[in-house]
């Protein structure tokens, strides 16, 4: 049985926040209620022992009776007030989660007064402690009794109301931050698509002047490539299998222009094929390797794209690498360096989606061969994360 998200009277004595109340079971809520009532009773019984010299156990039972009666009446009245407010507003209006401070103060005063009187009589019957009730006490003594019973409930209610508001503000701030990051990510993705298309059309323009027949074949391949790629890129993530399939389409497109100068190979282990990644992420690295590494080289070279796991257990990460046998970073001329837009987008997308948990590096190859190595390390994703429309 789940405890419904009802009102601050439950939260005040049960230490429930707005999200907690929707998840906590009735048994858990009852245990929290009991803990707070016991703490209040222990504090009051200790004061009676120290200030009045009364026996601790009878004093504790006496205070416990009053605390239980006050708590029960305050919660019942607060719940009823909240229910009446929501009934008056109607089902279409925003539902109140508590009655608000004016009505809550009324609930606290009335509930504490009646609860003290009822608990006082019950405590006298159980413990034999003679205590003048509110109705039999004088005005000053009666007022002090009401205040004594009112202060614990007021203090606890104030504490948990403020805590709930703080939790709500934190949730709202986190939601706004997440939505801003998602909008930024979509903007980066939307910028990358025309960048990729521009690079491909620039290659096609060069080929039209050199070899019209191959340009026609490249145009046909481009149409098929765009049909598959632009549809897939609308998702927030897709599988490594789909990313590598799009890379195969793109490399087939580039081989029409470069011929034997481009020697690609792809290495995707079967057990990693369904892991998720942002779309077109490797595409930008492959474009960069071809444009700035392989095309300036007369012989061209190999282009190796791979995926593997690095690390173990919770520390494991997905490692994606694009290794080319081109001219290398040190040999790139300023005229062929480009704007770095694609690599900038890769860094920004990783930072926006994963923060410090992901990284990107572009370095010379460490095996003594010419060329460069682009490496992406990112958290392992097995499912597609939800994104708002």
In the sheet with the most strands, the strands line up as 2-4-5-7-6
Averaged pLDDT: 77
Q: Can you identify the CATH superfamily of the largest domain?
A: Histidine kinase-like ATPase, C-terminal domain
The first-level CATH class name of the largest domain: Alpha Beta
Weakly predicted, low-confidence segments: 1-23
Alpha-carbon Rg, integer: 35 Å
Sheet bearing the most strands, described?
Answer: 5 strands, mixed
Question: What is the helix tally?
Answer: 10
Assign an overall shape: elongated
What fraction of residues sit in β-strands? 5-15%
Q: What's the CATH topology label of the largest domain? A: Heat Shock Protein 90
How many structural domains can be distinguished in the coordinates?
A: 2
What's the architecture of the largest domain, going by CATH?
2-Layer Sandwich
What is the N-to-C succession of helices and strands?
A: HHHHHHHEHEEHEEHEE
Structural class: alpha+beta
Number of E-type strands: 7
Q: How far do the termini sit from each other?
A: 33 Å
Percent helix range: 55-70%
């Amino acid at each position: 049985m789940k405890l419904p998200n009802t009102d601050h009277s439950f939260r005040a004595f049960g230490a429930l926040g707005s999200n907690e109340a929707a998840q906590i079971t009735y048994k858990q809520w009852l245990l929290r209620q009991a803990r707070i009532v016991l703490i209040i009773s222990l504090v009051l019984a200790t004061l009676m022992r120290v200030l009045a010299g009364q026996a601790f156990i009878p004093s504790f039972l006496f205070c416990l009776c009053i605390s239980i009666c006050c708590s029960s009446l305050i919660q019942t009245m607060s719940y009823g007030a909240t229910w009446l407010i929501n009934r008056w507003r109607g089902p279409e209006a925003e539902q109140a989660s508590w009655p608000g401070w004016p009505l809550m103060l009324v609930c606290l005063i009335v509930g504490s007064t009646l609860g003290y009187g009822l608990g006082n009589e019950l405590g006298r019957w159980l413990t034999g402690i003679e205590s003048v009730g509110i109705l039999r006490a004088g005005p000053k003594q009666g007022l002090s009794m009401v205040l004594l019973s009112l202060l614990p409930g007021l203090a606890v209610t104030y504490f948990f109301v403020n805590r709930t508001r703080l939790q709500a503000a934190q949730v709202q701030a986190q939601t706004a931050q997440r939505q801003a990051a998602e909008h930024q990510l979509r903007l980066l993705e939307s910028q990358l698509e025309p960048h990729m298309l521009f690079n491909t059309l620039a290659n096609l323009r060069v080929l039209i002047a050199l070899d019209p027949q191959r340009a026609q074949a490249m145009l046909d391949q481009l149409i098929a490539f765009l049909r598959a790629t632009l549809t897939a890129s609308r998702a927030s993530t897709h599988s490594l299998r789909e990313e590598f399939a799009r890379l195969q389409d793109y490399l087939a497109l580039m081989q029409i222009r470069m011929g034997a100068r481009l020697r690609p190979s792809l290495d995707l282990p079967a057990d990693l094929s369904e892991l998720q990644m942002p779309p077109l992420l490797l595409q930008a690295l492959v474009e960069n390797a071809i444009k700035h590494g392989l095309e300036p080289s007369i012989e061209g070279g190999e282009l190796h794209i791979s995926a593997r796991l690095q690390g173990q257990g919770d520390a494991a990460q997905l490692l994606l690498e694009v290794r080319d046998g081109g001219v290398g970073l040190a040999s790139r001329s300023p005229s062929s360096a480009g704007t770095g837009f694609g690599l900038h987008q890769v860094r920004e997308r990783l930072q926006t989606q994963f923060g410090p948990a992901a990284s990107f590096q572009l370095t010379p190859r460490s095996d003594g061969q010419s060329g460069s190595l682009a490496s992406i390390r990112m958290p392992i994703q097995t499912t597609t994360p939800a994104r708002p429309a």
